[in-house]
UniProtKB/TrEMBL annotation:
Gene3D superfamilies associated with the record: NAD(P)-binding Rossmann-like Domain (3.40.50.720), ProC C-terminal domain-like (1.10.3730.10)
Domain Pyrroline-5-carboxylate reductase catalytic N-terminal: 2-55
Role, per record: Catalyzes the reduction of 1-pyrroline-5-carboxylate (PCA) to L-proline.
Catalytic activity: L-proline + NAD(+) = (S)-1-pyrroline-5-carboxylate + NADH + 2 H(+); L-proline + NADP(+) = (S)-1-pyrroline-5-carboxylate + NADPH + 2 H(+)
Protein name according to UniProt: Pyrroline-5-carboxylate reductase
Residues given in the record as NADP(+) binding sites: A26, V27, K28, P29
Family, similarity comment: Belongs to the pyrroline-5-carboxylate reductase family.
Length: 225
């Protein structure tokens, strides 16, 4: 592994904790506190611990590691698998700006990353962590409609996914409000405004907002359990 990837393998989590400057906790939330408690004595005083466990707060992490530890909560999403992720980074008060910059640079190797205050992690879960699932549903629904119209399934997925990716790129690169970009597509009396009318009548926006609100509430509840 070292020869091929430049990775130094270890035999235990404790061994990793002894030698790593930055330790990433990437286990299930239900066992994160237990795992960190087991390695806390092996960490050096300057070690930085980064947790990507949803719902495990900075305070819970500090109780496992010690309140004198530098700790960061991070929330990536699944598009990180294709180098298009979005990650929130939330440092505690002991983390230096240099430490934060190092962690941001790591996560920016496979997408974008921003510093977020801890109370904003629940909105991050709704708008970024969980949202790929909503977008996949939207792509699937559009593809189903295209198949109903006679298009092949493979082409339908490609057209739908590319339209979503291109639309997102326009929002990020033009700086225009999404509503303005929508209006640019809607010709008077045309096909697009007819589709928009149906989505508005069926409560498209309200459904998305309600779904995300429930997602955020669930995230908050998990952090208190």
């Amino acid at each position: 592994m070292h020869d091929q990837y430049g990775i130094n393998a270890a035999q235990s989590a404790q061994e990793v904790a002894q030698v790593a400057d930055i330790v990433f906790g990437a286990v299930k939330p239900g066992i994160m506190v237990k795992v960190l408690s087991e390695i806390s004595s092996s960490l050096s005083k300057d070690s930085l611990v980064v947790s990507i466990a949803a719902g495990v707060t900075l305070d819970q992490l500090a109780r496992a590691l010690g309140h004198d530890r530098k700790i960061i909560r991070a929330m990536p999403n699944t598009p990180s698998l294709v180098n298009a992720g979005m990650t929130s980074v939330t440092p505690n008060a002991l983390v230096t700006p240099e430490d934060t910059a190092d962690v941001l640079n790591i996560f920016r190797c496979f997408g974008e990353a921003e510093v977020i205050a801890e109370p904003m992690i629940h909105p991050v879960v709704g708008v970024s962590g969980s949202s790929p699932a909503y977008v996949f549903m939207f792509i699937e629904a559009m593809a189903d409609a295209a198949v109903l119209g006679g298009m092949s399934r493979a082409q339908a997925y490609k057209f739908a996914a590319q339209a979503v990716m291109g639309s997102a790129k326009m929002v990020l690169e033009t700086g225009k409000h999404p509503g303005e970009l929508k209006d640019m597509v809607c010709s008077p009396g045309g096909t697009t405004i007819e589709a928009v009318r149906v989505l508005e009548e069926r409560g498209f926006r309200a459904a998305v907002i309600e779904a995300m609100t429930k997602c955020m509430e669930k995230s908050e509840a998990l952090s208190k359990s």
